């Protein structure tokens, strides 16, 4: 099937569809209508139909969606039909928390190495992975097929470390350091800022307060 260009907004919603469908599969649900999916996900049924039509629909009139099929197809679109080897650079609070989260492997993201510069951490095990020193990194990258490097190190180290791993063949950076990275065009960078989500939460809270205040003022009149 020839694929048309999909908007970034649709792509951003796909992981959520994927998660919900995965949960449905786990609870033994084999098919679902767009209305049922809409109730569960709090997204309009027409939005769901529109989103999924981008990929040829996957739905059948009067039947709804085959959950397994839809889950597999969205997984393919998201590139989850393969596995990725990932290393973590910076074995502090965040780096170790990521390494300890076993579910990434279920989605195909396998943490195979963790690196730091602190000699006190050398050889410490995080799950079944030993923390190695950054000095071993170039050799490690020659001997292991690594697709993704997660940066959980101080921001002033991010650029140099990103350049080091990309010069050694890594083509994707999952960047948690609060800095924008300019890397060669063929390197994919995805930056994560938990604080953005927290600010969104605070915006929604203040907005909600404004709304309820407005409502009570109208009632008083
Ligand atoms: N994006 C987000 O949402 C988010 C959330 C929390 C923290 N952070 C950022 O993530 C980073 C890590 O946070 P943390 O709380 O785990 O800090 P931390 O101090 O606990 O850990 C940082 C680790 O990086 C190591 N390190 C320093 N230079 C290095 C290098 N060149 N190569 C490899 N390792 C190196 C340090 O020795 C330390 O172990 C910080 O930059 C922080 O601002 C981002």
From TrEMBL:
Residues 16-55 bind DNA. Keywords: Cytoplasm, DNA-binding, NAD, Repressor, Transcription, Transcription regulation. Its main location: cytoplasm. Gene3D superfamilies: NAD(P)-binding Rossmann-like Domain (3.40.50.720), Winged helix-like DNA-binding domain superfamily/Winged helix DNA-binding domain (1.10.10.10). One of its GO terms (cellular component) is cytoplasm. NAD(+) binds at residues 90-95. Residues 79-180 form the CoA-binding domain. Signal peptide: none annotated. SMART domains: CoA_binding. It is found in: Cytoplasm. The keyword Chloroplast does not apply. GO terms for biological process: negative regulation of DNA-templated transcription; response to redox state. The keyword Cytoplasm applies. GO terms for molecular function: DNA binding; DNA-binding transcription factor activity. Homodimer. Belongs to the transcriptional regulatory Rex family. Modulates transcription in response to changes in cellular NADH/NAD(+) redox state. PANTHER family: REDOX-SENSING TRANSCRIPTIONAL REPRESSOR REX, REDOX-SENSING TRANSCRIPTIONAL REPRESSOR REX 1. This is Redox-sensing transcriptional repressor Rex. It comes from Fusicatenibacter faecihominis. The lineage of its organism: Bacteria, Bacillati, Bacillota, Clostridia, Lachnospirales. The gene is rex.
